[in-house]
UniProtKB/TrEMBL annotation:
Chain residues that bind heme: 451
GO function term, MF aspect, one: oxidoreductase activity, acting on paired donors, with incorporation or reduction of molecular oxygen
A Gene Ontology term for the protein's cellular component: endoplasmic reticulum membrane
Family that this chain belongs to: Belongs to the cytochrome P450 family.
Cofactor: heme
Pfam family, one: p450
PANTHER family: CYTOCHROME P450 FAMILY 4, CYTOCHROME P450, FAMILY 4, SUBFAMILY B, POLYPEPTIDE 1
Record-given protein name: Uncharacterized protein
Keyword field contains Cell inner membrane: no
Keywords recorded for this protein, A-Z: Endoplasmic reticulum, Heme, Iron, Membrane, Metal-binding, Monooxygenase, Oxidoreductase, Transmembrane, Transmembrane helix
Locations listed in the record: Endoplasmic reticulum membrane
């Protein structure tokens, strides 16, 4: 009997504790909302639903980004967006507003990037403050053009493997979905360039590591858009959380093994020059030899984080860029033909690109940039202000404000770009680019936290586009147009389908 009374007593205490917690949480949310409403009062924005905020306008139907472009046009490039009635952020889609944020070293937002930490660790993408600055300085030599030069032939080989596979596939099927194949190609090339690892992932798609990388990409995005999964405990206990942890372990074990083997092989080679005589320098070489101003190298944990970050950022974003650019070129045969004539004049009878070729295809490069303008691989990036900021028009927001930089919206802003929905590569001719706002075209972000690997990415895009157009005629699958959805990178809900015809 006494045991029953004690149990009843503890149950009442537990219920009381839960009620107090709920009340305190509700009060916290109430005052948080009041503060945000006060901050955003100076920024007119779209009307909100009493419960959903603006979330009801986003239906994953391919129009979500375009809805935000409409709001940007109506509310002058800076306006609040509410998900529910307690979580809001300031969305920016004008280069003058973007300039004020990109110029600062503001940290990435926890909401999206924080969920990647179990996978990529605390590398350059998510670090802040002095440690971010230290890593940025230590990693910069890894993207010097002397290091990037040998990568062009590696990327050419990976692209050629993909195109050889396409030749076989188009004899069996009418159309080809680009993103899946290009993602495998960019994963293959990044593994070879990052740590000289022959993955054969384009042929061995069922390898544990490749499946783990795809699982982590999918599950990280699933967690971002599934509100209950924002809670660590709920996600940890869910089947998706278990699957994510399993994939992370496979990835980390693979990275640790590669680093361990490289350290063993480097015991005889004390200098980068010695290694370079034997083979090209890869990203892992640069990381292992990197030293800060005190002569300290990266810890094993930091090494793994930077390698995994480079793997994540270097394959999915580039695959998105290449896929959408090829889709644009497929839609506009007149531009496609001009690119092909330029490419064939440079390549002649060669089937691979070389470093010197990259600067000899200006029209193709303009088409690539226009594709990146229309379909930026990372359509939205987030920042959390550490300090207050005052914009060019005098309006201010305090520290702690969540800023969403809508790169897609900046690239479609009609006050900057004439007829922004028209594909026009000549926007990027030297004479047309000279007087444009420096923050009007930001596919790799801008300022001190811009993409450190943007030259690597542009080189890979040029190689993949050039070799593809040299071998195939592309045309869109009009019966199955892509439905664009903003995730960690810009993807299509139904894939990106094109018709391919082998050229002589």
């Amino acid at each position: 009997m006494w045991e029953a009374l004690d149990l009843h007593h503890y149950l009442k205490l537990a219920i009381s504790f839960c009620l107090v917690y709920v009340v305190l949480k509700a009060v916290q949310l109430y005052f948080h909302r009041r503060r945000q409403v006060e901050i955003f009062k100076q920024f007119p924005g779209p009307p909100c639903h009493w419960l959903l905020g603006n979330a009801g306008k986003f239906n994953r139907d391919g129009k979500d980004l375009d809805v935000m472009v409409e709001w940007s046009e109506k509310y002058s490039g800076a306006y609040p967006v509410w998900f529910g009635n307690f979580s809001g952020f300031l969305s920016i889609a004008h280069p003058d507003y973007a300039k004020a944020i990109f110029a600062r070293e503001e940290p990435k937002t926890t909401l999206s990037y924080g969920f990647l930490v179990p996978w990529i660790g605390k590398g350059l993408l998510v670090l802040t403050g002095p440690k971010w600055f230290q890593h940025r300085r230590m990693l910069t030599p890894g993207f010097h053009y002397d290091v990037l030069k040998p990568y062009v032939k590696i990327i050419s080989k990976c692209t050629t493997d993909m195109l050889d596979n396409w030749e076989k596939l188009i004899t069996k099927q009418k159309t080809l979905e680009l993103f899946e194949h290009i993602t495998l190609m960019t994963l293959d090339s990044i593994m070879r360039c990052a740590f000289s690892y022959e993955s054969n992932c384009q042929k061995e798609r069922d390898s544990a590591y490749v499946k783990a990388v795809f699982d982590m990409s999918y599950l990280a995005q699933l967690r971002i858009r599934t509100f209950p999964y924002h809670n660590d405990i709920i996600f940890y206990l869910s089947p998706h959380g278990y699957r994510f942890r399993k994939a992370c372990k496979i990835s980390h074990d693979h990275t640790d093994k590669v680093i361990r083997q490289r350290k063993e092989s480097m015991k005889q080679d004390k200098e980068l020059e010695t290694i370079q005589q034997k083979r090209y320098l890869d990203f892992l070489d640069i990381l292992l030899f990197a030293k800060d101003e005190k002569g300290q190298g990266l810890s094993d944990e930091d090494l793994r984080a930077e390698v995994d970050t480079f793997m994540f950022e270097g394959h999915d974003t580039t695959a998105s860029g290449i896929s959408w650019i090829l889709y644009c070129i497929a839609k506009y045969p007149e531009h496609q033909q001009k690119c092909r004539e330029e490419i064939r004049e440079v390549l002649g009878d060669r089937q691979i690109m070389e470093w010197e070729d990259l600067g000899k295809i200006p029209y193709t490069t303009m088409c690539i940039k226009e594709g990146l303008r229309m379909y930026p691989p990372v359509p939205i990036v987030g920042r959390t202000l550490r300090n207050p900021v005052t914009f060019f028009d005098g309006r201010s927001v305090p520290a702690g404000t969540f800023i969403s930089l809508n790169i897609y919206g900046i690239h479609k802003n009609s006050s900057v770009w004439e007829n922004p929905e028209v594909f026009d590569p000549l926007r990027f001719s030297p004479e047309n680019s000279a007087n444009r706002h420096p923050h009007a075209f930001v596919p790799f972000a801008a300022g001190p936290r811009n993409c450190i690997g943007q030259n690597f990415a542009m080189n890979e895009i040029k190689v993949a586009v050039a070799l593809t157009l040299n071998r195939f005629q592309l045309s869109p699958d009009l019966a199955n147009p892509p439905i664009k959805i903003p995730q960690l990178v810009l993807k299509s809900l139904n894939g990106i389908h094109v018709h391919l015809t082998k050229l002589k």
